[in-house]
Amino acid sequence: MSFLFEAGDETLWEAGYVSGRMYFALAQGVADHLRVSPGLTGGTPRGDCQVDVSAFRSFVEHLYREYSSTQSVVLHDLLRGMLITSLIMLERAGAPITLEPEHEEAFQQEKAVLARAMG
Questions:
Q1: Dihedrals φ, ψ of 39, to 5°?
Q2: Which candidate, 34, 40, 39, places its Cα nearest to that of 20?
Q3: Which of 54, 51, 3, 58 is nearest to 35 (CA)?
Q4: For 47, phi and psi rounded to 5 degrees?
Q5: Does the pTM exceed 0.90?
Q6: End-to-end distance of the chain based on CA atoms, in angstroms?
């Protein structure tokens, strides 16, 4: 069973059911912490999730700012997986955010590897 993240009729990620539910739950928690909407609705037991690209982009921008504003290794590690996954989904939606050059370079390989795994 899969967990679909869709923007309109476009599938951004056909996640495995457990991976999709986990990402959805983590996004909700991080969005609550950042006091923004994650831009994800649904998250039904069937695994349907609609992505409001504009709101999701804002969420990812806030997530990136949080990541960039700390020197905490622990926070970096906690946020990094969520951030990389979210950046890939935004790119697939045609709405990437601009990263600092040092982050763009550092994330490039990770995004490529994860994007292949995300199908």
A1: 75, 15
A2: 40
A3: 58
A4: 100, 25
A5: yes
A6: 15
> pLDDT truncated to tens, each residue of the chain (119 aa)?
899 999 999 999 999 999 999 999 999 999 999 999 999 998 677 778 999 999 999 999 999 999 999 999 999 999 999 999 999 999 999 999 999 998 998 899 999 999 999 98
Q: What is the domain range of residue 80?
A: 2-117
Parallel/antiparallel/unpaired status of strands 10-16 and 2-7:
antiparallel
d(CA 19, CA 65) in angstroms, rounded, equals 24
| Tokens standing for residue 118 | 């995300």
State the Cα–Cα distance between residues 115 and 5, nearest whole angstrom.
14
Measure the CA–CA gap between 117 and 98, rounded to whole angstroms.
Answer: 23
Q: The tokens of 91 are what?
A: 């790119």
Q: Which residues of 8-23 are buried (b: 16+ CB within 10 A; e: fewer)?
A: eeeebbebeeeebbeb
- CA gap 11, 7 in Å, rounded: 6
Q: How many domains does the chain have?
A: 1
